């Protein structure tokens, strides 16, 4: 191993120990009600706040690297090195006792994830990857993704409100869903970006369409799909980075078909500009989530 590879392996082992250490608490808190409103139809539970404080504290103490979390923010992610953490991915699932929920953690260097972990305690599954290496499932290397075709693949699809007028409007998402359903009848909406990307990396899903841009949702899974041999861009086909406004992740072959489908569906209600984040307001300490 090179020095850089040894460093990342050590950081992954440390991060895994930290996430293992809070798994029981994660399971104890399932069903926790909303505690902090974060906007229309979004909230955090007390466990979100507690787990972020606990995980962030342990990571900083043990690695000396600051953490940017969903609930409390942190250092900028476009330069330098930082952990990026989603203490509870799929908060609605978690609050309702649904098992498709977990903790996502990535190490980001200069806007690119180099280490990713996705722990799903209700499922008893632990995914991890280091840049350049294979996807690990419960510590065991997984085979690379084989080329596939869309009409034989299950596709994870991001949640939407048809009346939404945000960056990627609900009407456009609805059109994408309708077109996709004609090409693959196996569309799945899990309510967890972490699940969609981890399942894509392991090959359960042939691909995932993620309309959200938050790095704590996307960074770990993006790296895992890449390490598994998948293709990851935004919805326009631009290679994903920390400022991307969406994620399109899929096995070879499926990604190209999905990208063509999205391009054909694009029209009124969606523009190329809406798929890129506002670079005037990068993620950093000044952000108040």
Automatic annotation (TrEMBL):
It is an enzyme of class 3 (hydrolase). The gene is impA. It comes from Nocardia jinanensis. This is inositol-phosphate phosphatase. CDD domains: IMPase_like (cd01637). It comes from the Bacteria. InterPro entries: Inositol_monoP_metal-BS (IPR020583), Inositol_monophosphatase-like (IPR000760), Inositol_monophosphatase_CS (IPR020550). It holds the Pfam family Inositol_P. The keyword rRNA processing does not apply. The lineage of its organism: Bacteria, Bacillati, Actinomycetota, Actinomycetes, Mycobacteriales.
């Amino acid at each position: 191993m090179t020095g850089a590879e040894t460093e990342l392996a050590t950081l992954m082992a440390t991060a895994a120990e930290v996430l293992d250490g809070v798994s029981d608490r994660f399971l104890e808190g399932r069903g926790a009600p909303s505690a902090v409103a974060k906007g229309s139809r979004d909230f955090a539970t007390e466990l979100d706040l507690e787990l972020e404080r606990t995980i962030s504290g342990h990571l900083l103490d043990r690695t000396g690297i600051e953490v940017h979390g969903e609930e409390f923010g942190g250092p900028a992610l476009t330069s330098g090195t930082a952990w990026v953490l989603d203490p509870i991915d799929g908060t609605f699932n978690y609050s309702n006792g649904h098992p498709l929920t977990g903790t996502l953690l990535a190490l980001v260097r200069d806007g690119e994830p180099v280490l990713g972990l996705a722990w799903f305690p209700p499922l008893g599954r632990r995914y991890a990857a280091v840049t350049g290496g294979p996807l690990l499932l419960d510590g065991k290397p997984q085979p690379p993704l084989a080329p596939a075709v869309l009409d034989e693949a299950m596709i994870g699809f991001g949640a939407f409100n048809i009346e939404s007028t945000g960056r990627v409007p609900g009407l456009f998402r609805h059109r994408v869903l309708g077109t996709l359903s004609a090409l693959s009848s196996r569309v799945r909406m899990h309510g967890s970006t972490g699940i969609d990307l981890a399942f894509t990396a392991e090959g359960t899903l042939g691909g995932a369409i993620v309309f959200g841009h938050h790095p704590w949702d996307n960074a770990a899974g993006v790296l895992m799909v890449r390490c598994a041999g998948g293709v990851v861009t935004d919805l326009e086909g631009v290679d994903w980075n920390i400022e991307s406004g969406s994620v399109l992740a899929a096995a070879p072959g499926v990604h190209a078909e999905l990208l063509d489908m999205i391009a054909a569906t694009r029209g009124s209600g969606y523009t190329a500009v809406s798929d890129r984040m506002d670079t005037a307001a990068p993620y950093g300490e000044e952000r108040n989530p």
